[in-house]
Amino acid sequence: MKFTHVLTQALGLLSLGGAVEGFSRSRNDACGPLKPYRSLPTSKSRDKTCHVRSHGNGTDDSSYILSALNQCNHGGKVVFDADKEYIIGTALNLTFLQNIDLEILGKILFTNDTDYWQANAFKQGFQNATTFFQLGGEDVNMYGGGTLDGNGQVWYDLYAEDDLILRPVLIGVIGLKGGTIGPLKLRYSPQYYHFVANSSDVLFDGIDISGYSKSDNEAKNTDGWDTYRSTNIVIQNSVINNGDDCVSFKPNSTEILVQNLHCNGSHGISVGSLGQYEGEVDIVENVYVYNISMFNASDMARIKVWPGGPSALEPDLQGGGGSGSVKNVTYDTAFIDNVEWAIEITQCYGQDNITLCNENPSNLTISDIYIKNFRGTTSTTEDPFVGTIVCSSPDTCSNINVSNINVTSPIGTNEFVCDNVDETLLKVNCTATSQ
Ligand SMILES: *[C@@H]1O[C@H](CO)[C@@H](O)[C@H](O)[C@H]1NC(C)=O
Ligand SMILES: *[C@@H]1O[C@H](CO)[C@@H](O)[C@H](O)[C@H]1NC(C)=O
Ligand SMILES: *[C@@H]1O[C@H](CO)[C@@H](O)[C@H](O)[C@H]1NC(C)=O
Ligand SMILES: *[C@@H]1O[C@H](CO)[C@@H](O)[C@H](O)[C@H]1NC(C)=O
Ligand SMILES: *[C@@H]1O[C@H](CO)[C@@H](O)[C@H](O)[C@H]1NC(C)=O
Ligand SMILES: *[C@@H]1O[C@H](CO)[C@@H](O)[C@H](O)[C@H]1NC(C)=O
Ligand SMILES: *[C@@H]1O[C@H](CO)[C@@H](O)[C@H](O)[C@H]1NC(C)=O
Ligand SMILES: *[C@@H]1O[C@H](CO)[C@@H](O)[C@H](O)[C@H]1NC(C)=O
Ligand SMILES: *[C@@H]1O[C@H](CO)[C@@H](O)[C@H](O)[C@H]1NC(C)=O
Ligand SMILES: *[C@@H]1O[C@H](CO)[C@@H](O)[C@H](O)[C@H]1NC(C)=O
Ligand SMILES: *[C@@H]1O[C@H](CO)[C@@H](O)[C@H](O)[C@H]1NC(C)=O
Ligand SMILES: *[C@@H]1O[C@H](CO)[C@@H](O)[C@H](O)[C@H]1NC(C)=O
């Protein structure tokens, strides 16, 4: 009797010392096969648990969510139960979080009130991006394998009528220092799936993305991840079924590791677009992209930079003239199938007239690029070409290396378009220039 009592006490102490069941694995151990640029901070242990209530009748559950987050902030775990659907109809500013886990077992659905969200979603000040909520603070983990559903169909249909509407991003990771996101299922985002800004030391692991439009209006700009003003980010072990960039490194993304992704239907893994805004300095430096399978896409490796002069791609997408640099970017090991370009590097983004592009060379340089170990087959779209590497002047690109590219088009060719680039470093068949 006495013995049992002592044992129970000992176990009680043990469980205080350890974490509440859930996220305890070190973020560094979870990273693989390649390790992050800098080691990721380990989570503090969690010692309390809060379950989120839900109305269960379609009304907004935001106040329940906020009260659970406040109650379990600073060392607790908030559980979204497996058998519940939670409705979010209020823009939640979750940048106050500290040492907290969000275990999402059930489903979270954002309301379809497009008027409310256009007025209240968080404006992030980059490419008019807004987010349903913003997750920030320090040492925050969101996992559990449950679902976040952006109710995108109303947005896809509204955007077809008016392409200036502001469609929220499903997950805003804004100003987060230290965190793990995933495993999670993400469905039907109105726009990008993740916008990661002002953040550092964040691991995305085991994200499953899907959500196609059920009407004739395509789900557009559904990038998997856009990183912005962020450093030491890892994105890995994820499956992305979408219709725009699988991952995109926007201005001031540094020390980013992306590995083990299955991307389907995307625009590839993209640096940029950069140099869109005159007077701004955009930096993308130290990026490693490893072991990607890319299916049914426009690109695998892509670097898109606007030229020096003003250019227009679409009514809501124009720019050019910005300065900065893309430096030390590696794409290592990729399998492609039905992809238009295995490699697409351009400093003429938004400007089809190459003469005009070369008259106003980009103010944003591209250097120390390593692209290697690609295999597979392109689509028929660009036959006989499988890649294109076009700089706007010989002075704006340097040390671009391409090697071991075993990629052919369906008709068996492997030609590249090459312009204003040192062809001795390109171990590919440069058979054409873009003029
Ligand atoms: C939903 O449930 C809450 C109580 O949990 C109740 O106050 C509210 O009136 C209900 N709303 C609807 C639309 O049924
Ligand atoms: C979000 O909350 C933070 C405090 O955590 C505050 O500083 C910031 O102004 C809030 N942002 C918005 C848009 O409400
Ligand atoms: C929006 O969602 C509600 C249920 O919450 C549904 O009754 C309504 O039909 C939806 N509206 C549209 C346009 O899909
Ligand atoms: C990031 O931080 C900068 C500087 O504090 C701030 O101006 C900006 O609004 C923040 N958010 C984003 C998305 O850049
Ligand atoms: C932001 O949206 C406004 C209208 O909603 C538009 O005039 C402006 O060009 C957009 N800015 C960007 C950078 O797309
Ligand atoms: C790509 O997505 C389509 C649905 O749009 C699906 O039919 C196909 O199986 C997927 N392919 C891969 C390789 O994931
Ligand atoms: C990016 O970094 C550069 C260099 O530090 C800085 O000049 C620029 O303002 C930053 N841009 C953004 C969008 O934060
Ligand atoms: C370039 O990136 C590699 C990893 O891809 C890193 O090891 C190296 O330190 C970086 N170089 C510089 C100069 O930062
Ligand atoms: C491209 O720009 C040049 C220089 O401005 C111009 O002479 C030429 O007509 C343009 N070509 C086309 C196809 O518009
Ligand atoms: C951009 O480049 C042009 C030359 O192509 C140069 O005249 C101009 O000063 C540059 N602007 C900036 C802001 O660097
Ligand atoms: C290139 O890939 C094909 C299959 O896609 C394979 O048969 C061939 O051996 C590979 N060549 C080299 C040099 O790796
Ligand atoms: C270039 O194409 C020729 C056939 O046209 C082929 O024999 C050669 O291997 C190719 N070179 C590279 C680097 O792919």
From TrEMBL:
One of its GO terms (molecular function) is galacturan 1,4-alpha-galacturonidase activity. GO terms for biological process: carbohydrate catabolic process; cell wall organization. Its main location: secreted. Keywords: Cell wall biogenesis/degradation, Disulfide bond, Glycoprotein, Glycosidase, Hydrolase, Repeat, Secreted, Signal. It comes from the Eukaryota. It holds the Pfam family Glyco_hydro_28. InterPro entries: Glyco_hydro_28, Pectin_lyas_fold, Pectin_lyase_fold/virulence. Residues 1-22 form the signal peptide. Its EC number is 3.2.1.67. It catalyses: [(1->4)-alpha-D-galacturonosyl](n) + H2O = alpha-D-galacturonate + [(1->4)-alpha-D-galacturonosyl](n-1). It is found in: Secreted. Residues 36-57 are annotated as: Disordered. The active site is at residue 267. GO terms for cellular component: extracellular region. Specific in hydrolyzing the terminal glycosidic bond of polygalacturonic acid and oligogalacturonates. Belongs to the glycosyl hydrolase 28 family. This is galacturonan 1,4-alpha-galacturonidase.
